[in-house]
Amino acid sequence: MTGSGSERLAVMLEVPADLLIQLGRAMVERVGRTGVLEKIASENDLIVRRTLKTLGVKNHTDPGEIRTALRDAIIDNERQLLTYVGAQAGINEFEKAAALARKIARAGKGFFLKREYGADILRKCPPHNLLQFLGHTDVEELLARHDVEEIFSALRFIESDEWMHQTFEAAYSHFTPADFEEREIDVKVLGPEWREMALQFVAKKHHNVSHLKEFGVIFLNPITEDVPGKFLRDFALLLHYFHEIEFYSKLFRRYAAGPDFPEKLKSLLRGDVPEMRALREGEWLIVQRYLWKADAKDPRLFLPRVNPESMHWFRGERDIMELGLAEQDMKLALWHDSDWAGLDLFDGKDLISFDLEDNAMTEVSAAEGKQQYFNYHQREALWTRLFSEYAGGEFEMERLLMENFHTGTIIFGENNHAR
Q1: Which end of the chain is more exposed for a tag (fewer CB within 10 A), N or C?
Q2: Residues with Cβ < 8 Å from 404, sequence gap 6 or more?
Q3: What are the backbone angles phi and psi of residue 376, rounded to the nearest 5°?
């Protein structure tokens, strides 16, 4: 892949090179950082060469050989991780994975909705479909027999969209900061009574991990998926959720000190992204979802943006990498700082992601006979890597996100005191 740094990055981001050139000029005026595009492009090339050398790839222009080597690495890493998890304390693979994730995820306490308010929601808006499914006569029997957080994990898969919308608006429109409390992030492995519901979740989401941001809880559906790549993929997702929940908890705390707490809370839980087709100079869109999954032609995918999802993934994958460094039998350090790295061999027609999650998903797809190549995590991570460089690093990036999340954009030099 040849050309200037802006041209090479533009191919990977699927945007015109002029967009990046203009963005670079605007950012120099606002933060004074020059040569960022060339620097990131050069770092990308170094990561790609380092990874290919480690993998023993001989032909750096053969996408088939490269993808095979990346898939083989995923399979080897998963085998090593499964062996390590198997040596942990716990009654089964899921309990052991949950215990290990709690141990290695660098996430602190959070600010979460008190559990009793979950029970209040159910009393005010009885989940009739769930009651019928479980064979309970009323909400009190439901609450007596089941954990309120487990109940909430099941609602979205058995109640109607209308019920979910009405309940969400009725309940969450009236919460105040006093309804929240400080506590640890929790990981729950669902019991056998939820198996049928868990099967529905896995069939729809294609993974067995879920979470509730407002309650600060992560769920493991104990459905064994004996497909190469799925365990590593889902373990990375589990760690990602620790960091996502911690991030949103910080926003809950921040909004608790200001006005319009209920509306801001609902916006966070919906994952709102502004409907925009253009940005001003020095302005970046905050995208708290993977828009590509819903519409690969979404116009917001062609705008400069920062995606906190990428930050959560980076931190979760860093947890895995640090485990690999501590345990020499696991070669997980291969993926260090490569979540945003990519190789495009044919000018936008064959982008290869070097992100762990993209490659784990690609391996799963191949094992299931679908042969789909994923790179959307890498593309969002590359935009976020550019933003981080202009912002001044990971923690400055998080500060800017915290200060501007409610507006939906960050304008350098105007509303964020970026240096």
Answers
A1: C
A2: 286, 410, 415, 416
A3: -70, -30
pLDDT per position as a tens digit, 28-78: 999 999 999 999 999 999 999 999 999 999 999 999 999 999 999 999 999
Closest CA to 361 of 370, 351, 376, 374: 374
Q: Tokens in use for 395?
A: 């923690």
Map tokens 């690969």 to a residue.
296
Half-sphere exposure of 194 (CA within 13 A, CB side): 26
Beta bridge partners of 113: 180
CB 189 within 8 A of CB 147: no
Give the 3-state secondary structure of residue 313: helix
Rounded average pLDDT over 80-101 = 91
What angle separates helix 308-326 from helix 93-104, to the nearest 10 degrees? 100
Which of 129-133, 340-344, 395-399 has the weakest average pLDDT?
Answer: 129-133
Query: What are the angstrom distances between the C-alpha of 14 and each of 240, 336, 350?
Result: 26, 24, 11
pLDDT digits (tens, 9 = 90+) for 219-253: 888 777 788 999 999 999 999 999 999 999 999 99
Q: How far apart are the first and last CA of the chain?
A: 33
- pTM to 2 decimal places: 0.93
Q: Which run of H or E residues covers position 285?
A: strand 283-286
Backbone dihedral region for residue 115 (phi beyond 0: left; psi -120 to 50: alpha; all else: beta): alpha
